[in-house]
Input
Amino acid sequence: MDIRPLDFTDDSVMAEAYRIECAANQRVRRDWTPLDINARILGWRTPNGWRNDLLGAWHGSELRGFGAGMTSIEAPDTTWIFVWVDPAHQHAGVGSALARAAEAASPASTRRFVASAYRPTPADAETFARNFASPLGYSAATTETVVELDLREADLTGPTTAAGYAISTHV
Output
């Protein structure tokens, strides 16, 4: 297995990374709806206040997974580690190698690594922690319930305001 940076300018490599991200996420989260491919790839390519180190795990010319180390310019001491492995190649050490490579590629200012992982049940989360995160030295800092709202079909009335407050959107 050869681990090397993904070429952000190569559309076919970025499309394959997108396919792997979708397949890996949908394996543990069947109802997960991905961003549009163009929006996702643009997000990876666009300077947005984060240093994004994307690394691929290659077997010959086949991309089997990729990892990301993402460090905010505003919090250079913390790097977020993410790993996606094609389901056909999971449980073979690819994800662990990618996590370690993403840590190694992080800026010298990094003092703390954090990660986030979704699993559908507490038992699945415990298994993930025991078999993947803990051997890498990660431990659960928090568990949380996330409620995702799909507002595409929502019939929203006008904005509600309270006297003395203004509502604004910052992008």
Q: What stands out?
A: The radius of gyration is 18 Å. Helices lie at 11-28, 37-45, 94-104, 122-133.
